Records
---
Amino acid sequence: MLRQQFGDKIDRAEVSCGDTIVYVRKSVLIAVMRWLKESPDQDYQYLADITAVEYRDGERPLEIVYELFSLQKLTQLRVKVELDKARALALPSVVSLWKGANWLEREVYDMFGVQFENHPDLRRILMWETYAEGHPLRKDFPLRGRFSRSEQVRQALNANPEAHYSMEELSIAEAYVDLPPEMRDRLARGERGRIPDPGDE
Amino acid sequence: MGLNDPKAPTEPKSTVVSQVSPNWVTTRLDFLVNWARSNSLWPMPFGTACCAIEFMATAASRFDLARFGMERMSFSPRQADVLICAGRLPFKLSPVIRRIYDQMPQPKWVISMGACASTGGIFDNYAMVQGIDTVVPVDVYVPGCPPRPEGLLYGILLLQKKVRGESLADRSIRDEQLLNEGGMRLPPDVVDELSEPFGNSIHQTRSA
């Protein structure tokens, strides 16, 4: 039940309630995650979810939860990081390990206000870009929001619906005219691009 | 059928009658035009959530919508007559539905299908519009969560009755209702009043 075969013994606690949960400190998060992903006998190559928990008891810290799954061994692992609410909520980003963490961390930022360092594109994902009322899933956020209903409607109607595209996606759309002509012809004919051979980079 | 100038001071709305006083010809013409419009309402299904499934069920074979003239669901607002908002509307989607409504040409009507579209439903929170009538003008509200197909059909029949009661002489009903300078459709106190919780919600413990 207790999986103490971690190479790093800098973990703080280890609890199992039917699931295996490991509490990790923020300072060693990236190292532990990298070890979990890349070490051949761990092989947690699938990041299922990143979420956060704020308990009703105000003294418990904010927990960021990473759900990992190993496709080879078919086992799940939950890694939790505790963040003290009195200090700034910041964590290193795991986007370098799992690309799927991009949107998952954006959701945690949007809902809880946790800043992820080295995240390529940290902005709101569920609420609109210019949402100014705060971070909705915190316990000190009122259910109906901080502004009056009329103010919420006014801000929502004046928000730009196209503003949620990333700069990369917008630049691709604008760069169409700069593409080489044979590529434009291929795209115009409906070709989607060639499937790279295994020998390519 | 012109645009309401939002910056002009609005005088009290009076029925603008045409030059010719209503007579047998205009009545018959009204009847013909309204009969044609009511029996060929092309819906723009703005289905967001569970009510969209019930809308699809209403359009399917058992509760056929085609027999009411709604054979062709137009997914382009430019070719639609009635915008059926089926499902809850988040604040993030409200400029989208406003833009879709503005893109529809006159004559146009709006059916608000379901509790969430009418009043916000069970989602009285930070993210959901408490009734699409704060964003677009609504003609028929269909209650239910989701409304039975028969309920939606009753709403559509009510809309047909409303369409048949219109008159070509009254040109003001076909005016575009645009947003005002602040970008709102209704004054703020009206929006606040429409969004107030009601019924059981006020007896339950909520924050703010």
Note: The two ends of chain A are 42 Å apart (CA to CA).
---
Amino acid sequence: MSHSKASTDFLRNAEHAKWHDETLWMIREKRDLASQKVPEWENLRTIASSIKEHVLSNLDHLLLEFEANATKNGIQVHWAKDAQEHNQIVLDILKKQSCAQVVKSKSILTEECHLNPFLEKNGIEVIDTDLGERIVQFLHQPPSHIVLPAIHLKKRDISELFHQKLQTEKGNEDPYYLTQAARTHLREKFLKAKVAITGVNFGIAETGEFVVCTNEGNADMGVHLADVHIACMGIEKLIPRRNDLGVFLRLLARSATGQAITNYTSHFRGPEKGKQIHLILVDNGRTEQLGREKFRNSLKCIRCGACMNTCPIYRRSGGFSYQSTVPGPIGSILSPGLDLKKYSSLPFASTLCGSCTDVCPVKINIHEQLYEWRQEITKANPNHAESLSMKLASGIFKSPLAYRISGILMRKLIKNLPDSLIYNPWNVWGKGRKLPETPQESFRNWYLNHRKNEQ
Amino acid sequence: MSSRQEILEKIKKLRLDQTELPTIPEFKNPLNTEEEFKASIEANKGEIIPEEKLMSWISETGFQKILNFSQLINLNTSYAKIEDAHELDQLQVAIIDGQFGVGENGAIWITNEQVPFRAIPFITEHLVIVLPKNEIVSTMHQAYIKTSSQSYSFGLFIAGPSKTADIEQSLVIGAHGAKSLRVVLV
């Protein structure tokens, strides 16, 4: 389904769509305030972008350095070329631990690999422990935003859901009450879990450690109580030096939610006594993207979600309309690299206003890449340009006479035809838009008359 | 060929020109770091309290399950000896020392050396961190320079209590981890 068709569903509830738009804009404004408090903000963005540039240009060496140091620290490093291999590695570790129930904190990579359905098919229950992710998991939905997974839901939806799943009072919509119910429910899961899965925000080649950021503390509750920690990391999440963390951590939370830092920033260098840490390095299409010169920069992304919060299309169409793991502007340049056909409408889900590029903490030229993808897609699928209306328009524009006649006709017709005829189902452009007022005469006529009067 | 080799080969084959790694300036913040730190902790929904207030809070609440790992304040706790982190589920208060704080965001650095179990700062119902006043740096850059030679196996910046806004963007304190953070500057 195309993005525009899918957004129609979202826009059906106008009141909710308005709330979604305004709430994300509020987060964008918080991001502005937080970034303006840092005098060197623009300098930090430039440095962060060049660090990532270096990482992408030197990825093989840095991966080897990271592997060597992590191994020395007692972390078991695995490599997965695709989603399937990643999922199999996780399953093998779980089987070895005879683990039938695993707790998992937020990881976009595991969503990308569709780990949950795979593990469930193999008889393992996965419990997402981030509150927003637990909510969407109860609903059998994917997250609709990478930082705010349940931003598409209202508290009355969650209240009703928790009443069914967690036996909370019917009609009690108090966010504190609902959160405490989830806390009690998930505490029990944390205490029972033998294995915990997390994502990785940054892997540091120099020291072999990795960093995980949360506000809820759910990643840490999981891994410190479990015997085995599985960390899933895309190969582009590397940074060379530990000092680079200073740059990225100053940018990440401010860009994401306008906080100065997440309340928990955990640095894992080795396992706790008697426990294990497994780290899986995942490619899954990243090396292909690295080879696409025009789109390479998209791999600099640190998954802050700022481009979604600022995007006029994302705010008004919701995360599900993109139908890809990473939605919004950054998703629209990452996903076509994974499956050009499936995601061919995403680069068109943009006004190319460039706001995404302006807020990106690692200075990815998102709107330019959206434009570039449009060129690639049109080349790969010329039917796009050969639609009937395009052919017709092309014919009219080619002949001055045809252009003049159709102009005269349209000026007469549009004024006199009833709206029901003009805004017919074939007029796709007229959906949600009004045609401009028709002028009395054409510009050509006006010009000729004007010149006549002057002489 | 193993996946490891395959991935590395694919990258090598691209023969990308290595770009230079930028140096990071020190970015010292000229503000009064202690005042800034206090404001940051409060913005993160933590609380700065004097030592006397900590003692009166503990006696007023009547908490029984308290663990004090701080070397900086005197408080005898008589909670049972813990063999496994799971036994900490009923822990009401944990008191630990912070190594230093960061002015710009209120983050406090702790490593595995401060606590016998990594779960402690998370599983406790209330967390108290004792921090020497003169151990506050201005930004994260100084924080990483300060800890560059440490050999921890787990390091943690804590900046506030566990929180979430996943239900309609309403801020709720106390998601999975500690429901409050009190910082005692000494």
Note: Chain A has a mean pLDDT of 94.
